[in-house]
């Protein structure tokens, strides 16, 4: 059996069993009192060491015997001080161990209470009923999702029309608009004068139905004839 098991089962000496043993709180209080007492003892020894050291300096070479006695007392006080330091370290370690043990005991006790409470709660629960309840919840969630999907879907108004027929009708409308635009286009008028017998000598200005501006060659020829008439008149 481990030491921890013995501790929790109340293992120990017969005297401890008869008295029941001190509680962790009582033991911790005693240890703290001991630590306080030893700390005060430390302060006292440190003060005595300083006094003896001052006395040894004061006597010095004047009274070597008194100086040596002061140094001897100082050494004894230092030895006691070192022992107290070790004792305090041991007590501190023991106090921390007892505090940890007390904490672990309280933790285990509370965990035991929690386990009993959980057991009591679970006594009123039937696993079969829980499975049925979870199945009902899942089914209702599925129904709610279906309702949400049905509400969020777009209404199918107009879905009974054939999309191909609609496209064909649209093309017909576009063709009608195109034909209407072609009827509104006005072509140039055909010239009323007759065409010459020799097409090779036709001046380009005769094709007025294909020209936008007047023929420049005809105008140039008329200007040349005027110039020739003026020159002939001047020469005569």
Automatic annotation (TrEMBL):
Gene3D superfamilies: 6.10.250.1710, ESAT-6-like. Pfam families: Snf7. It is a peripheral membrane protein. It is found in: Cytoplasm, Cytosol; Late endosome membrane. This is CHM4C protein. Its main location: cytoplasm. Keywords: Coiled coil, Cytoplasm, Endosome, Membrane, Protein transport, Transport. Coiled coil: none annotated. It comes from the Eukaryota. Residues 9-21 have a biased composition (Gly residues). Belongs to the SNF7 family. It comes from Mesembrinibis cayennensis. GO terms for biological process: late endosome to vacuole transport via multivesicular body sorting pathway; protein transport; vesicle budding from membrane. GO terms for cellular component: cytoplasmic side of plasma membrane; cytosol; ESCRT III complex; late endosome membrane; multivesicular body. Residues 1-25 are annotated as: Disordered.
